[in-house]
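Our consortium's second objective concerns turning raw sequence data into structural hypotheses that experimental partners can test. To show how far this objective has progressed, the report includes one record in full. It was chosen at random from the queue rather than selected for favorable results. The single chain below, 115 residues long, was entered without modification.
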Amino acid sequence: MRLPSVTGFLLVGVLLGPQISNVLNQGVLDRLSFIEPLALSVITFIIGEKLHFKRLAKLGARSLFLSMTEIALLHLLTRIILLLNAYLFIKCFVFGQLRDGSGLPHYLEGVTFSL
């Protein structure tokens, strides 16, 4: 199995961490917290070393198009959801389509709200 070294670093960290084997428990991790910036800089250096700018340039236009399309679609979907919520709010609370004065729309019957 040929995985990048960064993937190996991450897998070893997860396996040794407190969530799985607890070899490195939270106390040890707290005492070693000063190493985190150094480790991240080494990982970043390794990733940067593997970048091939010629390949990146070839994929650049396509990646840019896909990124912009994703951003536009997420923006559109968010606007649709917000407009739907606004419509339901206006329909239920402003126009008084509430069930028997309970303060809740009929489709929320039996749902309890607590803080």
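The partners drew two points from this record. The mean pLDDT is 80. The CA atoms of residues 25 and 101 lie 55 Å apart. Both points have been shared with the crystallography group to help prioritize constructs.
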